[in-house]
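Worked example (supplementary).
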Amino acid sequence: MRNLKLKEMSAHEKASLWNSIEQNLGTQYKPFSYLLFWSKFQSRIIATSVAILLLLGGAVTASAHSARPGDLLFPLAVAGEKAQILFASNTQAKESLHIKFAERRLSEIKNLKRAAGLVAGTSTVAVTSATTTNTEKAAIKLARAAHGVDVALAELIKTRNALVANGSTDAVLIIDDIILELRGVGGGNVLITRLTSSNEKDGKTDIKIHATFTSTSTATSTFTGVVKIDEKKNGAKLELKSGGVKTKISLSENKQKGDNEKSRKDNDREEDGDDGDEDDDKDDGKDDDEKGDKKISICHKQGAEEQSLSVSRNAARAHMAHGDKLGRCRENTPHTPDTRAPIISLFNITPEYSSAIARWQTNENATALIWLSTSTPVDTNIMPTITRSTMQQSHQISITGLDSSTTYHVVVASKDASGNSATSSERSFRVE
Amino acid sequence: MENLQSLVALACRGDREAFRGIYDASNDKIFRFLLGQLGDRELALDTLQDTYIDIWKAFPKFRFHSDEEFWGFIFTIARRKVYAARKYAQKSSVLVDNETLEFLHESTHPETPYHFEDLALSSALEKISTLSREVLNLRYWSDLSFREIAITLDTTENTAKVRHHRAIKELLTYLPKTYVEQQFI
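After joint prediction of all chains, the assembly is encoded as:
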């Protein structure tokens, strides 16, 4: 039986068959491993589960979505937000979401305070006192609001730490603003405990103070600061400093906006975090605007168009509230279609025993096609004998299963990603 | 075969060039087996293509321990493809008369009267049972050892030897007496 002569496959058949096989290979099936899957996608599985729970959880989900800081389902709402951040496509989108959620915390606290019958301070100093209500119900609401402030603050500090770790400087500045505003909205009493010195010059009076700030929760902070009174402008400014953060509060009537819900505040992170009097003196000499004038880049949306802007921190928050993104817009370079065909160079064929190696270079990444024929000219209108779909610049393809003592003619071609193709001149070689 | 082992290791990780090496080393063996089993050159070529695509897909699950196991793995897939091809051919078969068949054969393969030159043997091979023909194809046209045949057929080496022995006996019964005397005596 071994001596029977079967009609074996010819070299051309083998090459064509391989070509067909290669085109159908596709991606290999990988055996499924639960451990590998879990270790690789652990965070995404958890986030997806939370996201699904949030999307499909019905009443629980709805409640969680509207949960305010301190509510039982608030952690679930936070988890949903974290899932959104996790799935955000890039750092810019993540930072924008962080800020969006921080603004949401602020808004929730404002609502909590409103529900507790406490109006946010007409200025941050003139905050309401816990003694304004005597009823038990009001006291419960007040305690609930205070707890909400603490929970929201803890959440925002976590966010701030995460952004600091990621080096998102601009986002950190905005979060600091929100934290300060949240502390202000939280309400409480500022008690000036000591006047240390005063300085009067050209109608301007600076009074250095020590003060304690007692929030509606049990937290009490100690501040050093200065009250700046400008008689000419009929205004006053209170600057408080604590924990490396400086808060500036305008007390002048003509600068307050609308119903005075929001007083102008500006804050700067201290270089050394020290809140000693010496530093106060040094800072006092500097112009406020000079320090608070750090511009933040945002990507401003105007209809379908996007424009990079440089704005102040407060303005940045307002922009982000209507959907602008933190950071510069991505450059939209006009798309010019690639019409240049790749250039084939260094094309050569090295015959070997019953095979040959075709080598050539292209000046850009391109596929490789080979037409092999024993007759000349080689017909390149038919299907190529060998096709390599891998995009590369250096091509080396082995042509196997060749008949000995036969002269072959070869034409190679390469096609780039835009579909431009280049074809080589015909080469001949003989397999001995 | 150290080279084969390294090629398989690379192909298992998705290396197409290594898979090309395996194709070069094995296509003749598999093609002969398929041609012997299916008796139709075009069908054998199509089945060979499908076989390699299945081998590629199954490679990540394969662990190379020996050449015998490698060939057993390859031919197990080829064997499955033969069954599938037969099933397909039965469903799509068209009855043609002998005259048409002869015309088609001559027009497509004018230089070759049939796949084999030895008509007596090819005729006998067509008459024996499928199982016997399979064993003989694997043994003589694909040059597999009894160990490799046993792995392919999912049986023991001894059983493979017994099947081979029975197949030879069955084949002899269909060969003309003069042929046997001429070839073996």
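Two points are worth noting when inspecting this output. Chain A has ten helices and 15 strands. Confidence is low (pLDDT under 50) at residues 119-133, 252-292 of chain A.
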